[in-house]
Amino acid sequence: MERSQLERQRVAKLERLREAGVDPYPHRVDRTHTISQALETLETAEGQGAEGAQIAGVAVAGRLRSIRTMGKVTFAHIDDGTGAIQLFLRVQQLGDGAYRMFKQNFDLGDFVGAHGALMRTRTGEISVLADRITMLAKAISPLPVVKEREEDGETVRFSAFSDLEERYRQRYADLASNAGVREIFRVRARVMSALRRFLDERRFLEVETPILQPLYGGAAARPFTTHHNQLDQDLYLRISFELYLKRLVVGMYERVYEIGHDFRNEGVSHKHNPEFTQLEFYAAYLDYHDVMELTEDMVAYAAEEVLGSAVIQYQGHEIDLSPPWRRVTLRQAALEVTGVDYASHPTAPELAAAMEAQGLAARTDATWGYLIDKGLLGAVEPTLIQPTFIIDYPRDISPLAKAKPGDPMHVERFEFFIGGLELGNAFTELNDPFDQEQRFIEMGQLYGPDDEEAHPLDEDYLRAMKYGMPPNGGFGMGVDRLIMLLTDQVSIREVILYPHMRTKE
After folding, report:
1. What is the CATH number of domain 5-137?
2. Per-residue DSSP letters for 112-179?
3. What pTM was computed for the model?
């Protein structure tokens, strides 16, 4: 790769280190404390009355963040991810040669080790008075400059890539230069732990199901297709865990869940990434009312565990995740927002005409169910800021959900919305194998084989159902969107370490 002028200068420094007998990438690191431990050690000693104490023999390591030289004294800061500490470098401690080596060959971004005494400077800052400074990893490329801007009266630091997409393409540099971005993914890890803890405490068993599947199903999405050479067989990256998890319910696991990646060959947007993290669970003897209670409890629990409160801030809105959440039927919500009662327009052409009369776009080739889901619900979604369950969906777009008693038009299904985002989907699961088979057949007649709304007929799943599936409630949630909500991010790319990017030309 072609080197910039700065990179060529740093390579020259690297070569000078080697000529002086210094390995710029040594095998071993002398470290006695993380930076946070070092800071705590001195503060503890001072708290026990050792004012002006120095603690000798401390070795820390981290990335150089600042260098300020004043003749025979240099102040520098290093950061190891647990915190930052000042290095106090003086010729009389380091020696003339080592001090000159540091000034001439060390740069911002380098990983260094420092050994010496913990102390406070006259300005009160905890520092390492170094008697040894060691190069641990020479950084050839300078990190993006960290800039500051004012937002709502607060100073916000951010890494200034000239091209926003380069932040995602070079996530390593983004993370290295921006502590706020690093914190998002620490929050993400804590949320994942909280979700597992919540389900584990309620007797759910965590399992793993196949990622490569001979037949995709469990959701309305277009799959990625691959090929197994030895078996000469086309396979699909899963779009959902659902049908495999429900097979386990047949197999007498009463409560199961999985957190993993799904893959959907669909558009990329601020809410969609082709590879994303999903949480699904299935519980015998629960219906969708029970699952609603589990859902609101789980989301509030995660927020409280990770953020310390069920009241969060998202895009300027104060949102209270505490149960109970609002429940409203899809029909009523659509009528309130759009003025269209879809039950009064039972065919696709009639519904499309009614939508257009209200100024809503309507695809002329779309099915009745698609117009409701993408058209009417699409208009409702941005209005759902406080946590809301939209319940009772048309049968046409819910082939795996149990019908509402006495209502042939609707099934027992809900989706939940927070901050204008759809976060999850759940059913009272259909467990009648003959009804399920008929639903698959009807879907095949409604949609063409290449339509993303189509559900292929899975004969093995039907075979499993015929052994007897207990009544159960199922749930699926996009974990990335929950992280967006809890970290106040408007783009899914901000909460996925390596989002999908178009190849650069």
Report:
1. 2.40.50.140
2. EEEEEEEEE-TTS-EEEEEEEEEEEE--SSPPPPEEEEEETTEEEEEE--SSHHHHHHTHHHHHHH-H
3. 0.91
